[in-house]
Amino acid sequence: MSLSAQSFGYVAELVRRESAVELAGKEYLVASRLAPLARAAGLEGAHAVDRYVNLVRGRREDARRVVEAMVVTETSWFRDGAPFRALPRELVPALGLRRRPLQVWSAGCSTGQEPYSVAMTLLDAGINDFDVLATDVSARVLARAAAGRYDDLEVSRGLPDSALGRFLTRRGDAWHVRPAVRGRVTLRRHNLLEPGPPAHGRFDVVFLRNVLMYFDLRTRGAVLERVRSVLAPDGFLVLGTTETPLGIDPAWVRVKIPGTSIYRLLGGPA
Ligand SMILES: C[S@@+](CC[C@H](N)C(=O)[O-])C[C@H]1O[C@@H](n2cnc3c(N)ncnc32)[C@H](O)[C@@H]1O
Q1: What biological process terms from GO does the record include (predicted)?
Q2: Which of 15, 106, 109, 110 for mutating ligand 1's site (highest number of atoms within 8 Å of CB)?
Q3: Domain ranges, residue 183
Q4: Would the CB of 138 count as within 6 Å of ligand 1?
Q5: What is residue 248's three-state secondary structure?
């Protein structure tokens, strides 16, 4: 399986333009992720991926498929634990009760484990007045999130038995998120390169985890600036544990909660 520099350059530029995801140095990843698409298009042989790239050039629907094949959609339930413990214990109390419903945005939600974990966390804490908006650039992962259907391997990744029993039901060979949780999450296609999605007011908590890490520094700055414009002045930004806005966008101050990477806007409440 080979990939010419020209094909790689085309795919890297397409994916950068459509999702901001950086592929520099990842020729092998591009070749291996596009190989199944080439096969599905009936192309075989050593140059199948190159021929596939030539085939999809300029074809909008196929280009979207290429972008979707290249984004990393790795996720799990209650990923990293600490942010989900902090949400009802520290973030919601700090926001106070005056502004309800609580508005949460899970940006880059992948197959839904993150926004459903948020909904389960809030319901478990007795907080019923909330909306979760979950967005992703990939229609493929959003369709999976909308189905709310997970296999045994997927539920084994982070979902405690207690939550499994209460919030999902077994049908056939899969687990289904119950309507009480599914109905609390609104799913929308949204590209973080575009202005933030509308909310009823601004978002109180934005989960933007394990997404910025795939962007170059300039794009991270631009995305953080957009998040600022839709975050309430006293709202919280929850990043992946290895991610930080520091050194990229000076507008943020860290909220010191162990095991988390949570920020508030400078000039907002301490
Ligand atoms: C690694 S997953 C993280 C999922 C979840 N936030 C978590 O931490 O488990 C990254 C997600 O970001 C999405 N993504 C990548 N580029 C994006 C963009 N420009 N706009 C919106 N979502 C994007 C991908 O499709 C993918 O589902």
Answers
A1: methylation
A2: 110
A3: 82-265
A4: yes
A5: coil
Amino acid at 19: S
Q: What are the Cα distances from residue 141, in Å, to 18, 71, 151, 175, 248? A: 16, 10, 15, 17, 29
What is the per-residue pLDDT for 270?
53
CA of 19 to the centre of ligand 1 (A): 9
Place of tokens 């929308």: 188
Gyration radius of the chain over CA positions: 20
- Is residue 76 in a domain? no
Mutation test of ligand 1: which of 21, 71, 135 has the most ligand atoms closer than 8 Å to its C-beta?
71
Residue 58 falls within a domain, yes or no?
yes
Does ligand 1 lie within 6 Å of residue 196's CB atom?
Answer: no
Percent of the chain with pLDDT over 90: 89
CA proximity to 227, closest of 253, 264, 189:
264
94 and 60 in a single domain? The answer is no
Q: What does the pLDDT read at residue 198?
A: 74
88 has pLDDT over 80: yes
Pairing state between β 231-239 and 261-265: antiparallel
- 215-260 pLDDT tens trace: 999 999 999 999 999 999 999 999 999 999 999 999 999 999 999 9
Q: Average pLDDT over the chain, rounded to whole?
A: 94
Give the pLDDT confidence of 146-184 residue by residue, as tens digits.
999 999 999 999 999 999 999 999 999 999 999 999 999
The CATH number of the domain where 250 resides is what?
3.40.50.150
Domain boundary among 44, 70, 96: 70
Q: Whose CA is nearest to atom 2 of ligand 1?
A: 73
For residue 175 the two structure tokens come to 């687990």
